[in-house]
Amino acid sequence: MVNDLENKIKIMKILYNIKNKKLYLVFMLFLLENAHQFFSPII
User: Fold this and answer.
1) Helices within 1-43 (DSSP H only)
2) In terms of Cα–Cα distance, which of 36, 25, 34, 42 is closest to 4?
3) What pTM does this model have?
4) Which UniProt keywords apply (predicted)?
5) Has residue 32 got a pLDDT over 70?
């Protein structure tokens, strides 16, 4: 799980460094949506 999170952070850093802000924002929203669905049953 930790490695998966580290990989996501690496991907986010790569996308941010590309300076494609729109793609970065969409990717962030995608992660947030998945996180909401993932943690929703716990909450």
Assistant:
1) 2-17, 21-39
2) 34
3) 0.36
4) Plasmid
5) yes
